[in-house]
Amino acid sequence: MLIQWFPGHMKKTKDLIVENLKLVDIVIEIIDARLPISSKNPVIDSLTLNKPKIIMMNKIDLANESMTQKWTKYFERENVSVVYVNSITGVGMKSVIGKCKEVLKYKLEKDKVRGRINRTIRAMVVGIPNVGKSTFINKFVGKASTKTGDKPGVTRGKQWIKVGVDFELLDMPGILWPKFDDEQVGIKLASIGSIKEEILDSIELAINLIRILRKINITAVSERYKIIDIDKLSDTEVLSKIAENRKFCITGGELDLRRASKTLLDEFQGGKLGRITLDICK
After folding, report:
1. Whole-model pTM?
2. In a 3-state reduction of DSSP, which class is residue 198?
3. Which of 156, 171, 186 finishes a domain?
4. Out of 4, 100, 122, 203, which residue is the most buried by the measure of CB atoms under 10 Å away?
5. pLDDT digits over 87-146, tens only?
6. Are 125 and 169 in contact (CB under 8 A)?
7. Are residues 252 and 123 in the same domain?
8. What is the CATH number of the domain that holds 219?
9. Is the same domain home to 154 and 67?
10. In what order do the strands lie in the sheet with 26-32?
11. DSSP string of 114-176?
12. How far apart are CA 34 and CA 60, in angstroms?
């Protein structure tokens, strides 16, 4: 499946990150817990190489718990600081500031020696589209917080968002990288909605998602759509069964595979197939 797009605004976002990086103490990269590797942008890694960083795995409620534990051990072995969050319910939110302070401990101690006690920590929030950055910020900030307005050196129109008394966030637009070396990464990102639907063939994407789920948890598909003997069906036949069982038809009684595809993708993204992690940690 060929996935292409022409992200003119991605270069602007890249430049924006570089321009503002010197103004922050730490970078918070938000990824989707269902894709702990595939939703990590290698461009962000290269841009923020010399800046302290934590990884925030969002949508933890949609990921397989056992697989999340395996990824936890993986990141620990890689010495990567990770927090796990559900931005909708707020689970894990309180650990974000604590983890940032933990990573910045040495720097903060040096600042205290210089007389900068209880100074504000500034964090840049980055990530690919549709990993829940806006939901996280809205939940994290809360009603009691305020926007502190433009600061010197920040691109016009960008604002720092104050959280509590000693923490500020600078939100960056979502950024993808221009080319996927692994086609499966593009398919997985498209399946969680990180690539605009307009540039994709939804039927082809749905069939590819079924192919991936067949290796991970095809039972979730058979139970959700009441498909008998799913192992005996091809991926295309599974999609047809979804349309048939949901009574999705177009004029003349032909099965509406496009509607079935959209239903599968929407329900997967919304967690209605259960807690499924597409990136497998072996």
Report:
1. 0.86
2. helix
3. 171
4. 100
5. 989 899 889 999 999 999 998 888 888 888 878 899 999 998 889 888 888 888 875 444
6. yes
7. no
8. 1.10.1580.10
9. yes
10. 82-84, 53-58, 26-32, 121-127, 167-171, 160-163, 147-149
11. TT-TTPPEEEEEEE-TTSSHHHHHHHHH-TT--EEE--TTSPTT--EEEETTTEEEEE-----
12. 8
Paired tokens of 61? 């409620």
State the number of CA atoms in the 13 A half-sphere of 232 facing the CB: 3
128 and 205 inside one domain: no
Report yes or no on 99 lying in a domain.
yes
| Structural domain includes residue 87 | yes
Report yes or no: 167 and 124 within 8 Å, Cβ to Cβ.
no
Record the tokens describing residue 64, joined without a space. Answer: 């397989």
Looking up residue 125, the CATH number of its domain turns out to be 3.40.50.300
- Collapsing DSSP to helix, strand or coil, 35 comes out as coil
β-sheet bridge partners, residue 30: 56, 127
Q: For the segment 159-175, what is each residue's pLDDT rounded down to a tens digit?
A: 788 888 889 999 888 88
* Claim to verify: residue 161 and residue 218 sit in the same structural domain: no
